[in-house]
Write a structure and sequence with these properties.
heterodimer; A: mainly alpha; MetI-like fold; 2 domains; three-stranded antiparallel β-sheet; disordered N terminus; B: alpha/beta; Rossmann fold; CBS domain Like; six-stranded mixed β-sheet; four-stranded antiparallel β-sheet; 13 strands; disordered C terminus
């Protein structure tokens, strides 16, 4: 619903969209100037950078740039139809990026060297980033729902996954080499990560909603309650993980039944506790505000019609509060997906493990193996929960 | 019948309502009017116990309201508020069917009742029943509000400034419809407003409140002609009371069955003396042809409008 006004605005005027034009021009420059890929004979030796013209000749480079150039020209006159075409061109370019990598692998990596690997260069990362920004810009201008925006991002992701999984073209990609040697650990890590996030958001939700209800009932607790949660939020995540080690270790040492549950100073227990702690502030605040902000006229009418207080809560207050409550869950989930990476430091597992291993070995592709799925999970959670919140808006989708 | 006996309500140190006595007969249209903060809304909300009274008694048909469970009491009393209070996450049909659903009616019976009410309020069930409140205009939403209040066929309807937020044209139409509904359904209506024209137009019994107490009550025409004190007089409009009284008197009452005068404007017999005066001023004439449909009934002269004063019992007749 936030996108309605800009959409209406853009239909009225067909002026240039300076943001999109800037993004497209920058993309072209980054593409031409920065290194496109890097090639290394094995994992240890640093790779040598190769520019776009090293990957393909003039015709190939121009062909690859064509959709971006067209999109930039179209953005000069941003009527609604033009913007739709821009969106399609950008998504097409994003979806075609793996093909460019495949071309680079084919042209540059010699099949005689089994350890040779292809790295993704700065040019591709920058273009990827700029194009994602332009997807967001187009989404806002067109007034697309979160769901439609998420779908736009899903198409390139699917294309990348399809090329990676179904074809041998990218076998020499360093990222894939890292994945192949660790595929079991990778899937375990994803499972651990998801479990940690869902368990912390789930527990946080139960505790947070309970706290919000308590604070609604006893107004005196509001001030100190929010102060405490705010304080919790300001503790740096690494410090909180560390702070929990000692008390949990003591508990496990003195209560064997706790230790038998798997609770110890390091591992999932402190990670889960810390993540729950961080989830409380956004959850309590959103639940509280959501329940409190329901139009008093509607509540008055509900009571006046003869609803019991339980009916007022279940049938009126809660459903009307749900979209804002879901917004809280969305923020918390995205935050937890990121924070759970840090939890790897205290042995909680998850995708953070690859990031820290990679940092330790100066193997950036291993870092990526951990970071990329986290990024994708966060984007997916954001789109899914955002779309759910929109769908639950009072008055339906109409 | 609603009886309020020595009714009081205190908020902290302040008396919102103090020692108020009022009897509203069955089928009566009672309008509480007064400046803001005079306790009129509080009085209304004490009847369905949205606010509990501090002292005194409220009886509905001889039974004290405290004897009922709150929610069960409220399901028997229709309730309409200014900001409509429709449930934004429910369709129009679901909003209207709320009280019947709370009362555990069969779904078919609820659906039939919803259609019936929408027809009663002149809304096409086909067009509106599936819409959500935010898709309605202010007037349509308040119609739904009234339909929702009437859903379980309550004896009593409480209305708290229901037309306060509407534009004058819509408000005028809804007042007209409410009068005709009252005429047809014969509900006891307690209506709160601060708009004196609305109060005069709708009320059988007009209750002027000030500082938590009743200053004067009676038929609108009685209050207009014999206000008890300066406050009531000024609230009723001071010097403009003449026009307000004219707005309560139908043209038919002053009509003279004389010869038709040619060349003067027509006025419908159902219009009020106020409309007639306005028409005379506009056309610079002192005589109008009174018509009903296409049939001519007689003439109305300025002298009759100004001098003749009808007996008190017959002035109200706008509702039919």
């Amino acid at each position: 619903m936030a996108g309605v006004t800009p959409a209406a605005h853009s239909m009225a005027s067909a002026k240039a969209n300076p943001v999109l034009v800037f993004l497209m021009v920058s993309s072209v420059m980054a593409w031409l100037v920065l290194s496109s890929v890097s090639v290394a004979p094995n994992r240890i030796v640093p790779g040598s950078s190769v520019g776009v013209f090293g990957v393909a000749g003039w015709p190939g480079v121009v062909l690859g740039l064509l959709p971006v150039i067209i999109a930039g020209v179209l953005a000069l006159k941003s009527s609604r139809r033009q913007l739709v075409v821009v969106a399609l061109l950008v998504v097409l370019t994003l979806a075609a990026l793996p093909l460019w990598l495949a071309l680079a692998a084919h042209n540059l990596v010699s099949p005689e060297l089994p350890g040779a690997r292809l790295g993704i260069g700065a040019g591709i990362w920058v273009v990827l980033f700029l194009l994602l920004l332009s997807v967001i810009e187009v989404r806002t201008r067109l007034g697309l729902s979160r769901w439609q925006g998420g779908l736009l991002l899903l198409i390139p992701m699917m294309s990348f996954s399809a090329v990676l999984i179904a074809t041998p073209w990218l076998d020499s990609l360093a990222l894939r080499r890292e994945f192949v040697t660790r595929s079991d650990a990778f899937y375990t890590a994803i499972g651990e990560h998801l479990l940690l996030v869902s368990a912390s958001v789930g527990c946080g939700l139960v505790i947070g909603v309970t706290l919000a209800l308590i604070m609604r009932h006893w107004p005196r607790l509001r001030g100190p309650g929010f102060a405490l949660l705010n304080f919790l939020q300001t503790i740096p995540s690494l410090a909180l993980f560390g702070l929990l080690i000692a008390p949990l270790a003591w508990l496990a040492a003195n209560h064997p039944w706790l230790a038998s549950l798997g609770i110890s100073g390091i591992g999932w227990a402190p990670a889960l506790l810390a993540l729950i702690g961080y989830s409380l502030l956004p959850l309590v605040r959103n639940t509280f505000v959501a329940l409190d902000d329901v139009d008093p006229g509607v509540i008055d009418a509900a009571r006046g019609m003869g609803m019991t207080s339980g009916q007022v809560f279940r049938q009126v207050r809660l459903p009307l509060a749900l979209p804002v409550l879901l917004e809280g869950i969305r923020i918390t989930t995205v935050q937890a997906i990121g924070l759970a990476a840090v939890a790897a430091l205290i042995g909680a597992g998850g995708l953070g493990r690859f990031i820290f291993q990679g940092l330790g070995q100066a193997a950036m592709d291993l870092v990526l193996l951990g970071a990329l799925p986290i990024l994708i999970m966060a984007l997916l959670a954001d789109a899914l929960l955002g779309a759910l919140g929109e769908w639950l808006q009072p008055g339906g989708a109409a | 019948m609603i009886e309020l006996k020595n009714l009081s309500r205190q908020f902290g140190e302040m008396w919102a309502v103090r020692d108020l006595n009022l009897t509203i007969n069955k089928g009566e249209f009672c309008v509480l009017v007064g400046t803001s903060g005079c306790g009129k809304s509080t009085t209304l909300r004490m009847i369905n116990r949205l606010i509990e009274h501090s002292a005194g008694e409220i009886h509905i048909d001889g039974q004290p309201v405290r004897g009922f469970r709150e929610d069960l009491l409220r399901r028997r009393i229709g309730y309409v508020i200014q900001h409509v209070g429709l449930f934004p996450h429910w369709t129009v049909a679901r909003n209207i069917g709320l009280v019947p659903r709370l009362l555990g009616w069969e779904p078919e019976r609820i659906a039939a009742r919803v259609d019936e009410l929408m027809a009663l309020l002149g809304m096409s069930a086909e067009r509106f029943s599936g819409k959500y409140p935010r898709q309605l205009s202010g007037g349509q939403a308040q119609r739904v509000g009234v339909a929702r209040a009437l859903a379980a066929d309550p004896e009593i309807l409480l209305m708290d400034e229901p037309f306060g937020a509407l534009d004058p044209l819509t408000r005028d139409g809804l007042q007209e419809e409410l009068l005709s509904l009252h005429h047809r359904l014969n509900k006891t209506i307690v209506f709160v407003t601060h708009d004196m024209d609305e109060a005069l137009r709708l009320a059988d019994r007009l209750v002027v409140m000030h500082e938590g107490q009743i200053r004067q009550q009676g038929r609108p025409i009685e209050l207009l002609r014999e206000p008890v004190d300066e406050f009531v007089e000024s609230l009723l409009g001071g010097n403009s009371r003449g026009l307000k009284e004219a707005a309560l008197t139908p043209v038919a009452q002053r009509l003279c069955h004389a010869e038709m005068t040619s060349g003067v404007p027509d006025i419908d017999a159902n219009k009020t003396l106020r409309d007639a005066l306005s028409l005379m001023l506009w056309h610079r004439v002192d005589c109008l042809n009174v018509v009903e449909g296409s049939e001519s009934l007689g003439t109305l002269r300025l002298a009759d409008v100004v001098t003749a004063r009808a007996p008190m019992g017959t002035t109200r007749g706008l509702s039919s």
